[in-house]
């Protein structure tokens, strides 16, 4: 590969804290002074500064947040992505560098938070998986008659066997391989992300994306979304046809129709308003005078 013809050089390793990795960044900067160098991944401000001072222009931030990354599960090592973005952005911007938030986004709202935390760029993997433009082989499941695309982490067994000759015996795989339902062209997903970003800017009063981090305030919450309809009970199935009357019910209905409407009940008083037996027992009767 002729690096001299490339505009960008991306050094992507799982552990950007290795001393040898820092030396590689220094060597590349010396050999290619006019190239844009991206290096990572790290999650702390101190290491972000060291990579920038070693020659990187952009630092990739994130350890373990990816949808097909199992580093946190296999090694117990990781850092909350938004916290890492905030800390590394503060360190990088202080010395004129930039950062990329790498991993952890599941919806356009997460992309907005990454930019709000100070990220200059945001990398997406799982959100773009399954589209025509994404990597991975298109697979047809004969049992379900559905199409899928392969998606795997670069530290997974699949990637290691494909690009690095397999996983060494002394280490474990830190990624997984999944099949994502085929989603067609990526355009509609990109439009959703861009629409969410535009709306976010209007909510916080940012006229441009670069202003977003200056307009945001983060508050820790225990519940962000309303889960009422997340697990709604299944709706009762409608009957295929209205219930048919039984023989006895049909006979009773016919008899009721033939008899006509029921006659009204007699009231206790007749139309003249006199008592039922025609006797008056008021105190003004002559028989009761003394």
TrEMBL record:
The segments labelled Disordered in the record are 231-290
Which SMART domains does the entry link to?
A: IMPDH
Reactions mediated catalytically: IMP + NH4(+) + NADP(+) = GMP + NADPH + 2 H(+)
What this protein is reported to do is described as:
Catalyzes the irreversible NADPH-dependent deamination of GMP to IMP. It functions in the conversion of nucleobase, nucleoside and nucleotide derivatives of G to A nucleotides, and in maintaining the intracellular balance of A and G nucleotides.
User: What PANTHER family does the record point to?
Assistant: GMP REDUCTASE
State the taxonomy lineage. Answer: Eukaryota, Sar, Alveolata, Perkinsozoa, Perkinsea
Supply the name of the protein. Answer: GMP reductase
CDD domains in the record, alphabetically? IMPDH (cd00381)
The family database entries (InterPro entries) matched by this protein are listed as: Aldolase_TIM, GMP_reductase, IMP_DH/GMP_Rdtase_CS, IMP_DH_GMPRt
Q: Which GO terms describe its molecular function?
A: GMP reductase activity
Tell me the keywords, alphabetical order: NADP, Oxidoreductase
Sequence ranges of Basic and acidic residues compositional bias = 281-290
Domain (IMP dehydrogenase/GMP reductase) spans: 5-223
């Amino acid at each position: 590969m002729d690096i001299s013809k490339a505009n960008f050089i991306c050094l992507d390793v799982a552990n950007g804290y290795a001393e040898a990795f820092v030396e590689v960044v220094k060597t590349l900067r010396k050999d290619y002074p006019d190239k844009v160098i991206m290096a990572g991944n790290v999650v702390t401000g101190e290491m972000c500064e060291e990579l920038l001072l070693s020659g990187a222009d952009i630092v990739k931030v994130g350890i373990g947040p990816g949808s097909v990354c199992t580093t946190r599960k296999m090694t117990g090592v990781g850092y909350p992505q938004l916290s890492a973005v905030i800390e590394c952005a503060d360190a990088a911007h202080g010395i004129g560098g930039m950062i990329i938030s790498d991993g952890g986004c599941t919806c356009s709202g997460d992309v907005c938070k990454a930019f709000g935390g100070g990220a200059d760029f945001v990398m997406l993997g799982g959100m773009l998986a399954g589209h025509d433009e994404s990597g991975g082989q298109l697979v047809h499941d004969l049992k379900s008659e559905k199409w899928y695309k392969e998606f795997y982490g670069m530290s997974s067994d699949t990637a290691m066997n494909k690009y690095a000759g397999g996983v060494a015996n002394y280490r474990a795989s830190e990624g997984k391989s999944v099949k994502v339902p085929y989603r067609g062209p990526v355009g509609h997903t990109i439009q959703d992300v861009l629409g969410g970003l535009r709306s976010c800017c209007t909510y916080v009063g940012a006229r441009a994306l670069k202003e977003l981090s200056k307009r945001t305030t983060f508050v820790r919450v225990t519940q962000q979304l309303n889960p009422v309809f997340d697990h709604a009970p299944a709706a009762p199935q409608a009957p295929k046809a209205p219930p048919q009357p039984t023989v006895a019910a049909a006979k009773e209905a016919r008899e009721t129709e033939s008899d006509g409407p029921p006659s009204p009940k007699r009231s206790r008083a007749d139309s003249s308003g006199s008592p039922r037996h025609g006797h008056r027992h008021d105190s003004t009767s002559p028989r009761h005078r003394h």
